[in-house]
Design brief:
heterodimer; A: 31 strands; 15% strand; B: three-stranded mixed beta sheet; 8 helices; 9 strands; 31% helix
């Protein structure tokens, strides 16, 4: 989230689209209701009338997979009706930037942008560049009138997204579209704020990243980024998934979202060169310009004394990707299916139910030589070999179960959607033989290290050279018990020597050797600091010699009244509660909305210790201490962008600098009503009949055998694939069986009664489900015909309840295809059939 | 918050999101188990209250102005001000406490189940399958209430659907919300008069009859219905005894007289 959970209460308008917070983040509805109690309006856009929609002032139905059409229409409406916040747009975004005149948008190239190569299915982004002046700074037209400026290109791109066109794609009635556009568009005023809440309903599409981009453009047009009650807010689906991605769980990131290098990046210098953005604009902070300090400090954290300037700080020991290699989820299981590797750790996951195309995954598991199921419970993954359709006698996979304990049986931090890391304590000791993940890793590490020592191995340095100062060492060389505080401290970072700010005269001491770092501002690229994760620097720190676990703080003071609670736990970065908050003030440093001031420039501020005048910011931790933009030393607000301003034109993505509507891989239409391009032109296609891929990856679009749009979602009563919740009798009692929700009209057509068992099938698999015939789904009028949509939860699996009464995973239906940028599987829009059994 | 005034709860049905945190919190506090359920096509589960389930949320779908509408009704014992169950109980196993909760004491219960017949809302349930069966129903978390704590279901609710305070404050809050937002609520407080008034009262955005509420419960204290008859029983017994004694005396005198003749 750019903002945070509590900040939702500050909004005038809340748009929920691609999410269902009442069901999946029910505590968040506390803040939604607080906002409503103050008169805020809730808009819910969803294919189905959900529990969240029951509280909506406006509910707009929309066919799954058509969010860009919907949002593109909103962009057009905001521009046409002059609802955008002009001063914000001109000063704080790249709307004024001039683009290469050879750039062509999707309206000119019938769904494509300039530079597309149909052979490689990639874009040459040469024309997606800004025109630069002699100082190598992008040329601007502050009047926003030049035909090549981003603002006019934006208007051109979305000229096709008229309400009528959008309605015929999304199935949303025109009046509803206008009502939504008008209400949300009303937050373009300086003293009005609109927030957006999204989750997998937006991300799990082949155009997922562009869905988010479309909303980012809207929020920048309306001046809703950086303000209270605004922002782009992802509702994370797990209590610590934010912490996981923060700490480099994804294949392509190191902790702190540093890039994982490919093998062709030969040394640290080349890495720093490639990944450090540059700018010649003195007003742009360009915070990623500090990249070298973070990667070097990271290497010092993991390799400690073994990492020296002479050996490039151990850069050679960092795992590298092969050139062009993509090790994302879909690719991983595809490689497993093709027997490219022998072993697999299913660590805290249940891919046999959670993965798109779960049937292919179950088959893939049967090809492994061994696998390890690290989980609280046995599940469909650990017991895959006993599952439906499996022949245990023919399966050679050796399966190990390592019981893990739950989050209430171990100490540590959880980082939630608000980027807030909250420290937790042990409520009960781990039961039976279950262990915390850190202990399991500790065991594995020392056994691997011991084997390497005794038997040698290929390229053992990356393991042998790791620091592992996590607790008291036993005589055998193994850490007896992991002290999670040591891990937290390593993540925060240390001054390895006395560190000085050499730019100051006289040089000012920043930190003392051996002490915990104050924040990432002090990190160095010369090996004198270590830091396991730069964005977490300050989370476990030292102030005047005293060690403080910032994440354990629980003070309830709220000086601004906006719900920032600056001393409750700690959020990254540096406890800044609302990101990009420099955009919440005008160029002089005065809040656009004084009633909800996030930060405010205070020229009369006094240093509390020295009593000297120290003009500075009041309120939230500002995005850098620099004075307001209009000041001579002032800076632009979007400090993580090399240009310093918000990106309306976004050349960094694989599939276009502007979002464009494409249909899902499997859709109900022969053609995309918006253009000639039916699907995202840059997605990886896994299967082409007779040409490539395995038949397990087959897909069927606009196919009479699978005429209904299918989607998956969650329910309050279960969590993820239900590995934990199906074992809780109170929860299973409330939600005992797999179901499929459908409209009364579709049920009538197929002769299906409410509560009847039916079969739902796709080109890849089938499940039985109890029919929930409801008014909350209604048929869509799309491109002149009636399109039905159905939906299933994905929380059930054959393994438990043991009598099979729960049903099996709806991911047996979903396709092998992912987003063009992230490869997140497209599980929210595919085609199915529903029949009586 | 423990004082001598009886507590009440206002259930504002416009706030509930149907998350069922209350249903689970109740199970946890009261150490309830489960009964096997199936999905019937409606998410209400279990479909009725039972000996392991003191509260559930009922899911009611309808249409309002051509758009779907979905309401979630918190269903449990209403803790009547003058409960029929306590009135009919021959051994005072069910009792209306001064704090508000209608409590059940197993040690006094003789298993006659007269309470189950008497309750106009069909709330009390029986542990038919147990060798030592209890009558089971919502306790209004009487031990929590007595110790100044908030009942479990109310504590976990994320949207403050239930407003818990002294009954008089709760009644006033219901009326205030209806006056402050004309048109938002239907003009009825369920439980104000039904069965002579209940501790748990409801306000709603759609008509109560569409939500499965029984609108035929008389606005009358139930024990009063039979009191006019029951309070005459001692007199009737007295009359019968006297009439019997006189009749015996006359019969005996007649027999003696017959014998003499």
């Amino acid at each position: 989230m750019t903002n945070n959970w509590i900040d939702i209460k500050n909004a005038d308008v809340i748009l929920v689209m691609g999410a269902n917070p009442a069901e999946n983040h029910p505590i968040s509805m506390k803040w939604v209701m607080r906002a409503k109690d103050k008169g805020a309006k809730l808009i819910v856009v969803d294919p189905r009338f959900t529990r969240t929609a029951t509280k909506a002032d406006i509910y707009a139905p929309m066919r799954s997979g058509t969010d860009i059409a919907f949002l593109g229409g909103m962009i057009k409406y905001i521009i046409d009706k002059n609802l955008y916040f002009r001063e914000y747009v001109a000063n704080y975004t790249n709307a004024s930037f001039l683009v290469n005149p050879e750039f062509k948008d999707a309206s000119q190239l019938d769904g494509l942008f300039s530079g597309y190569d149909p052979q490689t299915r990639k874009y040459d982004k040469k024309t997606w560049a800004f025109q630069m002046d002699e100082k190598e700074i992008p040329k601007k037209d502050m009047t926003l009138k030049s035909p090549n400026c981003v603002f006019q290109l934006l208007r051109k791109q979305y000229a096709r997204y008229t309400p009528e066109k959008v309605s015929s794609i999304t199935g949303t009635p025109v009046e509803k579209l206008i009502e939504v556009y008008k209400t949300f568009g009303s937050t373009g005023k300086p003293d009005r704020s609109g927030t957006e809440l999204y989750a997998m309903g937006w991300t799990q599409h082949t155009i997922g990243t562009q869905n988010i981009r479309a909303m980012s453009i809207i929020q920048l047009l309306l001046g809703n980024i950086g303000i209270a009650g605004g922002g782009i807010n992802a509702l994370r689906g797990e209590s610590n998934v934010q912490g996981s991605t923060d700490n480099g769980l994804l294949f392509n990131s190191l902790p702190g979202y540093l890039a994982v290098p490919s093998a062709s990046i030969k040394d640290l210098k080349a890495y720093i060169e490639k990944f450090t953005p540059k700018t010649k604009d003195p007003k742009s902070v360009n915070w990623w310009g500090n990249r070298s300090k973070y990667i070097t400090s990271y290497l010092k954290a993991i390799y400690g004394k073994n990492a020296t300037p002479e050996n490039d700080f151990g850069y050679a020991w960092l795992p590298k990707l092969d050139e062009g290699m993509n090790a994302s989820w879909l690719m991983l299981f595809d490689q497993m299916f093709k027997e490219k590797f022998e072993g697999f750790f299913a660590w805290g996951q249940n891919p046999a139910c959670s993965s798109a195309n779960a049937g292919k995954v179950r088959k893939a598991l049967s090809k492994l030589k061994w696998m390890v199921n690290v989980n609280l419970f046995d599940n469909e993954t650990g017991s895959f070999w006993k599952g439906p359709g499996m022949k245990p006698a023919e399966i050679q996979t050796e399966v190990f179960m390592l019981p893990a304990c739950s989050s209430v049986e171990k100490e540590g931090s959880l980082t939630n959607s608000s980027r807030l890391a909250q420290w937790r304590y042990v409520a009960i000791k781990p039961i039976g033989e279950s262990k915390p993940d850190s202990e399991i890793m500790n065991e594995l590490y020392f056994r691997v290290k011991k084997l390497y020592k005794e038997k040698g191995g290929k390229f053992t340095e990356p393991i042998m050279n790791l620091t592992w100062d996590y607790g008291e060492m036993g005589a055998d060389g193994k850490v007896k018990e992991v002290n999670i505080h040591n891990v937290a401290k390593e993540i925060n970072g240390y001054y390895l020597e006395d560190v000085f700010d050499k730019k100051a005269t006289p040089p000012k001491q920043l930190g003392k050797k051996g002490e915990l770092c104050a924040s990432f501002v002090h990190l160095q690229d010369d090996g004198t600091t270590s830091c396991g994760n730069w964005i977490f620097s300050q989370s476990y720190t030292q102030k005047e010699g005293k060690v403080i676990n910032m994440m354990a703080r629980r003070k309830k003071t709220d000086p601004t009244g906006l719900g920032l609670y600056p001393e409750w736990a700690w959020c990254w970065p540096v406890n800044r509660r609302i990101l990009y908050n420099r955009a919440s003030v005008d160029p002089k440093g005065n809040p656009w909305d004084p009633k909800r001031a996030v930060i405010k420039w205070n020229p009369n501020k006094v240093d509390p210790k020295t009593k000297e005048p120290a003009p500075g910011w009041d309120g939230d931790v500002p995005d850098g201490p620099a004075p307001p933009m209009s000041d001579e030393k002032g800076k632009y607000p979007f400090i993580m962008m090399s240009t310093g301003v918000g990106g309306i034109f976004g050349p960094g993505l694989a599939d276009g600098p502007f979002p464009e509507h494409y249909e899902a891989l499997e859709c109900p239409l022969q053609e995309n009503p918006m253009s000639k391009q039916r699907i995202n032109p840059t997605v990886k296609i896994f299967y082409e009949q007779g040409k490539k891929g395995v038949v397990e990856d087959v897909f069927a679009s606009c196919d009479v055998r699978f005429p209904f749009v299918g989607t998956t979602y969650r329910v309050t009563e279960h969590w993820q694939t239900g590995v934990m919740t199906r074992h809780v009798p109170w929860l299973l009692e409330m939600m005992p069986q797999q179901f499929v929700e459908m409209s009364e009209e579709l049920a009538k057509e197929k002769g299906i009664k409410n509560g009847q068992k039916v079969k739902v099938s796709s080109a890849r698999g089938e499940v039985w489900a109890i029919a929930v015939v409801t008014k909350r789904f209604k048929p869509f009028k799309v491109a002149g015909s009636t399109v039905h949509q159905v939906g299933l939860p994905w929380c059930f699996g054959w393994q438990h309840p043991e009598d099979g009464s729960g049903g099996d995973s709806s991911n047996l239906l979903t396709p092998t295809i992912g987003d063009a940028n992230t490869m997140i599987p497209e599980t929210k829009a595919f085609m199915v059939n529903v029949e009586k059994i | 918050m423990a004082n001598d005034k009886p507590k009440g709860v206002l259930v504002d049905l416009t706030r509930c999101i149907g998350c069922r945190g209350c249903q689970v919190a109740c199970k946890q506090w009261n150490e309830r188990s489960v009964k096997k359920t199936v999905l019937t096509g409606n998410f209400t589960n279990p479909p009725e209250l039972n000996s392991e389930c003191y509260t559930n949320i009922k899911y009611i779908e309808q249409e309002k102005n051509g758009e779907p509408a979905w309401n979630f009704i918190k269903n449990q014992c209403l803790h009547c001000k003058n409960p029929a169950c306590a009135s009919v109980c021959p051994v005072e196993a069910l009792k209306k406490t001064k704090d508000g909760p209608v409590t059940y004491t197993f040690e006094r219960c003789i298993g006659c189940r007269y309470c189950m017949l008497a309750c106009p809302f069909y709330v009390p349930k029986y542990e038919w399958e147990k060798a030592v069966p209890w009558v089971r129903k919502c306790t209004f978390c009487s031990e929590r209430v007595a110790n100044g704590l908030v009942p479990a279901c109310i504590k976990v609710c994320p949207t403050q659907t239930m407003y818990y305070a002294d009954y008089d404050e709760v009644r006033a809050e219901a009326e205030k919300r209806m006056a402050d937002s004309p048109g938002k609520y239907v003009n009825h407080i369920y439980g104000k008069d039904e069965a002579g008034g209940t501790s748990w009262i409801y306000i709603s955005g759609v008509p109560f009859e569409t939500l499965g509420f029984n609108m035929a419960i008389p606005a009358q204290v139930f024990p009063d219905l039979t009191w006019s008859y029951i309070n005459k029983i001692p007199s009737v017994i007295g009359v019968v005894l006297v009439a019997g004694a006189v009749s015996w005396a006359i019969t005996r005198r007649n027999k003696n007289t017959d014998k003499e003749e």
